């Protein structure tokens, strides 16, 4: 509070109001500062007694005092200060003693930044600065402040610049609000993709804070495990920024304050931080200069829908700013964004964990039912012991978990030959498997009765016409004579068999193809014969081995022929495994059954 003796004011300042200076503020009640100016003992200043003031000075003082905009008048070679009510708050603790004193003395801490501007104005040129950073000690510490102002020359008659008028507005609050809002927007727009885990989300949030060390010199995030719901939950340090190397955070009072903030849900403030952790708090990143952080705020990380905090955010307060209500609100909002990022990350983690658990359960169930299906199908297909030179394989379609209608069969014939059949019933499931079983049994009986493949398929035509679901089934039937190497075959709409000789040359058995079963009554089935050279391999298969959605059937058949040729030197069992690995690694959409025969 101003007193009559303060700032060199005349002891009878009230009486001075009746002098000529009183005319400078005409009419109406005067503010306290106006009365201070009017009652000041100006004779004790370089301006001299009021009676000796020039008309220009009187006019400039009047303009200053009657303006509601923050205004400072600096007059004469010493730049003596006269200011109004709007300007006084900018002086902080320097008011009211600044009245009547030289500006370079009052503003000694920022004068190096202003001196060149003043010189320019005294030379007759006005200046303008917007949001200029000025580091001043008006409140007893080096403070980061921002001002927009214009220095205008005040000219005496004759053209001499006698002083300057400073119209100014402090923009510190606006500048801080804008940069803090930008920071909060950055925190709020962190993409969900970065939230690989809660710890990573916390680290990413601190990375954003690390780019704003003028407001957040350092930061630490402590998180409690989501399963820990007790009143005395322990939180562990998961992310930091701005820490000095080797700083002993665990041995400080911070963990205790973190526990208190999480237990109470209220922010905790630690002062004297530079004494608690002197090696931790030097910022080295503030435009106002390097200084130890002496205050830290511990904020609980609370999120909507959660009854207890998920952790705590520890943030250093800038030593160059007052920790006022606006600053605290900003820190609370930042903590809210960090909490949201962590909570979101944990939700993503939970979704992934549940998805993984569901996928694992699905894989386990699929594996179980696939094994059941394969076991059942192989039990139906048999035999478990094959003649020399043969190998077989069955695999259900990926994801069906059902038996199907594909089959193979090898029948010992009385004359030392072998009857072989590979067939495919339309559809999947028990219905298709039931039809397959009947056709397979009928085919086996017919082969034992007649060794002519065309006759077997003709009889199967009539049999299939009597069985619901058997029509349009495809069958490849052949009789192999191991002694001569002859193969007689007939195909009812089935994919052609493939033969690869010992040199790797391949051919397709397309000489006896006709319609699928029970499509046309009294159809005469063709029959063809070839001789397998020694070392040749015969592959009979269902279309699931070669058919893919994104390519023509011929391409799949060619790929199968290449795979058969590549493995022609392998024993039949090993060749069957090689074909399975090479041709079925892309998860077939249909059941697969195939049969191999190698002529020794």
Automatic annotation (TrEMBL):
Molecular-function annotations in GO: phosphatase activity
Pfam families the UniProt entry points to: GAF_2 (PF13185), PAS_4 (PF08448), SpoIIE (PF07228)
Database matches in InterPro entries: Bact_Sigma-Reg (IPR052016), GAF (IPR003018), GAF-like_dom_sf (IPR029016), PAS_4 (IPR013656), PPM-type-like_dom_sf (IPR036457), PPM-type_phosphatase-like_dom (IPR001932)
Residue ranges constituting the PPM-type phosphatase domain according to the UniProt record: 385-599
Record's keyword terms, sorted: Hydrolase
Top-rank lineage group of the source organism: Bacteria
Name of the protein in question: Serine phosphatase RsbU (Regulator of sigma subunit)
Organism expressing this protein natively: Blastococcus xanthinilyticus
């Amino acid at each position: 509070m101003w007193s009559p003796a303060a700032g060199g004011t005349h002891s009878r300042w009230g009486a001075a109001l009746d002098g000529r200076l009183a005319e400078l503020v005409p009419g109406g009640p005067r503010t306290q500062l106006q009365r201070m100016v009017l009652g000041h003992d100006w004779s004790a200043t370089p301006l001299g007694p009021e009676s000796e003031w020039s008309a220009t000075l009187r006019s400039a003082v009047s303009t200053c005092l009657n303006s509601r905009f923050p205004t400072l008048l600096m007059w004469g070679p010493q730049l003596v200060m006269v200011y109004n009510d709007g300007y006084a708050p900018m002086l902080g603790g320097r008011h009211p003693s600044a009245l009547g004193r030289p500006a370079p003395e009052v503003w000694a801490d920022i004068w190096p930044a202003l001196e060149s501007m003043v010189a320019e104005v005294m030379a007759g040129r006005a200046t303008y600065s917007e949001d200029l950073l000025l580091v001043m000690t008006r409140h007893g510490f080096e403070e980061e402040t921002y001002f927009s102002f214009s220095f205008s020359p005040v000219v005496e008659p004759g053209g001499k610049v006698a002083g300057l008028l400073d119209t100014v507005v402090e923009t510190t609050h606006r500048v801080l609000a804008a940069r803090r809002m930008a920071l909060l927007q950055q925190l709020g727009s962190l993409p969900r993709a970065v939230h690989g885990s809660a710890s990573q989300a916390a680290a990413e949030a601190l990375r954003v804070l690390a780019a704003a060390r003028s407001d957040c010199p350092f930061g630490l995030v402590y998180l409690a495990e989501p399963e820990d719901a007790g009143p005395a939950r322990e939180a562990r340090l998961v992310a930091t920024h701005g820490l000095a190397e080797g700083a002993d955070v665990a041995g400080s009072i911070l963990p205790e304050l973190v526990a208190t903030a999480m237990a109470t849900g209220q922010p905790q403030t630690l002062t004297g931080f530079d004494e608690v952790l002197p090696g931790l708090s030097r910022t080295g990143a503030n435009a106002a200069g390097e200084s130890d952080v002496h205050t830290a705020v511990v904020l609980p990380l609370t999120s909507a829908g959660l009854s207890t905090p998920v952790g705590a955010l520890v943030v250093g307060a800038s030593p160059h700013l007052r920790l006022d209500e606006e600053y605290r609100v900003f820190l609370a909002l930042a903590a809210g964004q960090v909490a949201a990022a962590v909570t979101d990350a944990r939700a993503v983690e939970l979704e992934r964990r549940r998805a993984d658990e569901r996928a694992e359960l699905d894989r386990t169930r699929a594996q179980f039912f696939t094994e059941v299906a394969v076991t059942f199908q192989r039990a139906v297909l048999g035999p478990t012991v094959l003649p020399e030179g043969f190998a077989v394989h069955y695999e259900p379609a990926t994801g069906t978990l059902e038996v199907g209608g594909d089959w193979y069969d090898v029948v010992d014939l009385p004359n030392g030959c072998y009857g072989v059949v590979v067939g495919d019933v339309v559809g999947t499931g028990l219905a298709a498997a039931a039809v397959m079983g009947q056709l397979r049994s009928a085919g086996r009986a017919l082969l034992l009765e007649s060794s002519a493949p065309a006759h077997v398929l003709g009889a199967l035509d009539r049999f299939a016409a009597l069985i619901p679901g058997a029509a349009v089934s495809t069958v490849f039937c052949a009789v192999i004579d191991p002694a001569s190497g002859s193969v007689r075959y007939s195909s009812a709409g089935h994919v052609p068999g493939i033969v690869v000789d010992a040199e790797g040359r391949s051919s397709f058995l397309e000489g006896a193809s006709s319609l699928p079963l029970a499509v046309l009554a009294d159809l005469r089935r063709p029959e063809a014969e070839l001789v397998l050279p020694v070392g040749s391999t015969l592959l009979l298969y269902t279309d699931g081995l070669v058919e893919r959605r994104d390519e023509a059937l011929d391409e799949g058949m060619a790929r199968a022929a290449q795979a058969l040729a590549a493995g022609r030197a392998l024993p039949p069992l090993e060749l069957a495994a090689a074909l399975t690995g090479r041709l079925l690694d892309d998860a077939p959409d249909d059941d697969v059954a195939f049969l191999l025969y190698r002529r020794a």
